[in-house]
Amino acid sequence: MHLGMRATAVLWLLGAANFAVAAPTSSYTNTTIPPSTHIPTPTAYTPSSAVFRTACAQVSASYASALASYSSVAATNTSAVAPTSVPVRPRELWDCLYSIPINVDLSIEFVKQVSKYLKFQSTIAYLAKPPEGSLQDPVDILGSLETLAKKVASGEIAHHIIFEYTIIKLLQRAHDGHLGLRFNSGALADWQGPFPLVSVSVDGVAKPKVYVQSDVRRLGTDAPYVTRIDGYEVQAWLAEWADFGSSQSPDARYNSVFARYDPPSDGSFYNLYTWYPGKNSISITFSNSSTYEYDFKAFATWTPAMNWTGINDGTDFYKKIVVNPNFFNETATTAVAAKRWEQPTPAPAVERVVEKLRKRANATTTSTLAPTSTGEPEKETPLVLYNAPFMKHRVGPYVQDLNQIFGGYFLNDTLQTAVIDISSFAAEDEEAAKQAEGFRAAVTAFFDEVRRRKSQKVIIDVRGNGGGLVDLGFELYKQLFPAAPAKSYYRIRAHGASQIYATASEKIATDENVEQLIQYAYSDGKNSTLSTEEVTTVFTELSRGFSRQNVLDVKGNKLKNLDSWIGGVLSPRVNDSVSAVVQTNLDLEFDSEISGFGLLKNFTETPQPFQIPDILLLSDGTCASTCTIFAELLKREQPGISTIVVGGRPNNAPSAHVGGTHGSRILYFSNLLDATNNVLATIPPDSVEKQRLYDLVLPYKLPLGISIGAINFRDAIRPEDETQTPLQFKLDPADCRLYYTETVFRDSINLWGELAELKWGTKSNFTGCAVGGLQKGQGSSGAVPDDPDAQNISDWVMQGLGGL
Ligand SMILES: *[C@@H]1O[C@H](CO)[C@@H](O)[C@H](O)[C@H]1NC(C)=O
Ligand SMILES: *[C@@H]1O[C@H](CO)[C@@H](O)[C@H](O)[C@H]1NC(C)=O
Ligand SMILES: *[C@@H]1O[C@H](CO)[C@@H](O)[C@H](O)[C@H]1NC(C)=O
Ligand SMILES: *[C@@H]1O[C@H](CO)[C@@H](O)[C@H](O)[C@H]1NC(C)=O
Ligand SMILES: *[C@@H]1O[C@H](CO)[C@@H](O)[C@H](O)[C@H]1NC(C)=O
Ligand SMILES: *[C@@H]1O[C@H](CO)[C@@H](O)[C@H](O)[C@H]1NC(C)=O
Ligand SMILES: *[C@@H]1O[C@H](CO)[C@@H](O)[C@H](O)[C@H]1NC(C)=O
Ligand SMILES: *[C@@H]1O[C@H](CO)[C@@H](O)[C@H](O)[C@H]1NC(C)=O
Ligand SMILES: *[C@@H]1O[C@H](CO)[C@@H](O)[C@H](O)[C@H]1NC(C)=O
Ligand SMILES: *[C@@H]1O[C@H](CO)[C@@H](O)[C@H](O)[C@H]1NC(C)=O
Ligand SMILES: *[C@@H]1O[C@H](CO)[C@@H](O)[C@H](O)[C@H]1NC(C)=O
Ligand SMILES: *[C@@H]1O[C@H](CO)[C@@H](O)[C@H](O)[C@H]1NC(C)=O
């Protein structure tokens, strides 16, 4: 599943809070924000060199003493828990990082090398010259990096940590969750705000106010609300703070500032985008006129590979962490326990590929387990569970897959509304087994039950969905619309390096080899001229994303040669060299079987479970990556599906329902480095000129350690769009917008019940969306079937809510 087709927004970059989109319609509020001057940033405070001698030593001592006291307790108490972080003083931790010396030559070399990776970023030319009406500010990434190198050379930037911060901040300005970089220093330091905030409206329609989360829990919306932060009007301050977020929609960025119940997040006011806030405390003024100063928190953190032992000053930090040769190895942090620092696995092992291909021959076998009331597992690990706990919900879903990706509910309302709760398209544990099989089985089981109960309405809840396995997005779409094609169009940059990668792929993934690979897969390994090792090599090549075999032209035909795909055409608006617009070849998708393709081709005969007017897509704007592929399929191929977005800035303006990165595939720096190694092995330079070309354009190892780096590889494009503008810059507002109410923070089931009422129930003529309405696409009668046994939704929503 790491091969190729993963599309996950890079949540780790900014903690759990990121995403955003800008909206192109004129009805959007113009929210261009002046450069940050009010909000805390690392550079708000410049340490004096007097502290350089002591700061790192003190942090290191705190670390050592926490470990020592753990050891002494653990000697007598076997249930003592090992610490994973140690509180330190916020400013002291920054003093230490600030004391890391800069290496001018390596920093300049880093800029040169990292620019080669960043040239794969699909939108790089669009970011420098954003389409009119998109709320993206221009950001010239490559030009800014050149400027940075000059500043390092001239001595204007004289501290390594400022070098790091400048790069991170630069990439963040693209508001693309697939684009980012994390240096090793991020593994050793973390900061935290005083508490999570929430934004809550009294009824979902009135403009929300900002509260301390725990105050709302105790007092509801009667609690004093926040009026000022550090003396600035609260919304002005938050608008600037939210601008650090990685969504393209400003409303999605705004949502990420706040705590969220489902899927859970503390929000960026609390996690501070993992950066030093520039000071030790923050002042908050409440509606009751009280002003308090609250402390920030800071933590020394570590991983199995990197810790604070022996770091007594900035130079130690530099040697042990910044340029430690162990960390030049792009895969060296794979074993790191902290998930967000992990690298994806490199090329797959032979066994894994062979197993995958063999399984393909058996893919038609799906789970036929009967529901059990207790959710007791069967002898073999079942692919699906019935009536078992799911995430934070008070009531478990009717059915879920073994990895808790998909939850299928039936509400206890008069409509038997079905709800699909899908806050990610991948398991929390990336390595979890049977993600696709379990997902397909759970969706199948749920829709079988939908048909049995004659349930007709469905809410699809993608709030917080930052993406995952691309196959799962296609799978859910196909199960919803079995007879419909699933066309997903994209384009990549056709620059020198991607053309060289494609040329190497062409040597290995030849038409003949791919034909034999398919033979191998369909005959369970028995009928192929390729050896197992050769099969693995071809498979790996397909998964890189640079093979012509992966793509079909917009009409669905195979491309005859490389030139017709990646020969390079100029994009209409920005004069960038890009590939042809192509679509994913889903029949050649070996990571997992997708209903309606390959061996499951005849799935198209399955009846469609819901009609378009009976589908409501619910988001909070942070739909990103695979989620946007799914949402785009719904929107483009099935026009008329109603959309609703919750939360956002208190501006009563339309808001995008898909507001995270619209890129349809991420590539990690390690994937690109791997592709470079493949080029050197497959088509080694045979002349001085070629060697020079390779050195100029191919990404090589970076000279400073990073924990992770990624770019957005594929732009989603609508072929009918003459301007071929990446969808990142084309945001569509949801039909209806509501603000968060207090009940949503108690349980999502409350929100679902209210939305079913709003869309199909007794409130279906309700014009009370904060913005827009759900009338569009309303093909259903709105009539509530007569069912005396069913509960009134309003009653039900109000019942049984035992506190927060
Ligand atoms: C947005 O506001 C800025 C500053 O007032 C102005 O320069 C710009 O033209 C406005 N853009 C739009 C699309 O109205
Ligand atoms: C042992 O450690 C556990 C976990 O920290 C703690 O709950 C427990 O009270 C400790 N027992 C003793 C005897 O200190
Ligand atoms: C004002 O509200 C804040 C936040 O709830 C609370 O901590 C504080 O005690 C209140 N002040 C007074 C004077 O009631
Ligand atoms: C800390 O890192 C050092 C190497 O710098 C290693 O030898 C040591 O085992 C690590 N300590 C812990 C507790 O992981
Ligand atoms: C890179 O790291 C991996 C995993 O820790 C290790 O197996 C490999 O030997 C390392 N390679 C180099 C060149 O250090
Ligand atoms: C596929 O099914 C066949 C026949 O049922 C069986 O022999 C084979 O082991 C299965 N392969 C896998 C990978 O499960
Ligand atoms: C619906 O009601 C039944 C019976 O009261 C209960 O077991 C189930 O958990 C309820 N389901 C939901 C989604 O509230
Ligand atoms: C084996 O492969 C060849 C082509 O490679 C094909 O013509 C033939 O039908 C295959 N046989 C079986 C039994 O699948
Ligand atoms: C477009 O880019 C090419 C290659 O960089 C350059 O030669 C040409 O002048 C550019 N055209 C415009 C209109 O900017
Ligand atoms: C698919 O085809 C197989 C074999 O022809 C048949 O047994 C199966 O019922 C079909 N499935 C559907 C969903 O039509
Ligand atoms: C909604 O309005 C239509 C037309 O005014 C009316 O026929 C229908 O009964 C109303 N539905 C509900 C649930 O009130
Ligand atoms: C549902 O219950 C609410 C509150 O008790 C009541 O106002 C409403 O009329 C009821 N609706 C129906 C359709 O019975």
UniProtKB/TrEMBL annotation:
> Which GO-annotated molecular functions does the record name?
serine-type peptidase activity
A biological process (GO) annotation for this entry?
proteolysis
* Name this polypeptide is given: Tail specific protease domain-containing protein
Question: How far does the signal peptide extend, from start to end residue?
Answer: 1-22
A Pfam family hit: PDZ_CPAF_rel
List each copy of the Tail specific protease domain by range. Answer: 417-640
Entry annotated with the keyword Iron-sulfur: no
Which keywords annotate this record?
Answer: Signal
- Domain CPAF-like PDZ, residue spans: 191-299
Q: Which organism is it from?
A: Orbilia brochopaga
